[in-house]
Specification:
17% strand
Length: 217
């Protein structure tokens, strides 16, 4: 009503720009390099110099009408129907290295990571939270044993790891600033990946501009 734009016109404009943004703004470094095999290999070896940070986030989606589909999308952790996205970022949250979008909410974090592990070389190291305990490539916090406490040294190591890992959560928050990536997703489910990847491209554009301004000053 404020801008004299009908729902149909707003919907058409939204879908028009989402497709354009997906074409011009890669959602991650890996997507940006994937079209050039030489560039992709160079990126893989460059990334191996860092300990990348991995985490995932769930987003509520409309409950499917079909009962079998409801069971597929139901997340016991969130007690609702969700889609899961995995983010892998540079230390300090300086850029999105890889993003896996639109997986079933009930998919475990560690299985989602392992399904996409092939994108990196074998020596690549990662940081993760307790959801990734059990994978040798990921440094995770010490887990408290049953009926006992972890040592003071282990608590200190957990605190240090948390201070390094927090940047992936900050970056996920940047994505969730966009309501379409944080509120219940109400668009057609087949549009989910396209929309969230477009948001990631916009976040990368903003991050790179912010870091450019910081360097310039």
């Amino acid at each position: 009503m404020l801008f004299d734009v009908s729902k149909t016109k707003a919907n058409d404009a939204f879908n028009y720009w989402v497709d354009i943004l997906r074409d011009i703004l890669p959602a991650s470094q890996i997507e940006e390099a994937s079209a050039d095999s030489q560039k992709y290999r160079e990126l893989q070896h460059k990334l191996s110099e860092y300990e990348l940070i991995v985490d995932s986030a769930e987003q509520a989606t409309a409950r499917p009408s079909d009962y079998q589909e409801q069971k597929r999308y139901y997340s016991g952790k969130k007690k609702m129907h969700t889609m899961k996205n995995q983010f892998i970022v540079l230390p300090g949250g300086e850029d999105i290295v890889d993003v896996c979008v639109g997986m079933l909410g009930k998919t475990s974090d560690i299985n989602l990571f392992r399904d996409n592990r092939h994108k990196f070389i074998a020596t690549q190291k990662f940081l993760g939270d307790k959801a990734y305990i059990g994978d040798d490539a990921i440094t995770t916090p010490h887990k408290k044993p049953k009926n006992t406490e972890i040592s003071e040294l282990q608590k200190q190591e957990n605190k240090q790891l948390s201070s390094r890992r927090i940047f992936v959560e900050h970056l996920i928050c940047r994505v969730k600033i966009w309501r379409v990536a944080s509120d219940r997703f109400r668009l057609a489910r087949h549009r989910y990946s396209q929309v969230i990847m477009a948001v990631c491209g916009l976040v990368r554009l903003r991050i790179n501009r912010l870091f450019s301004l910081t360097i310039a000053t």
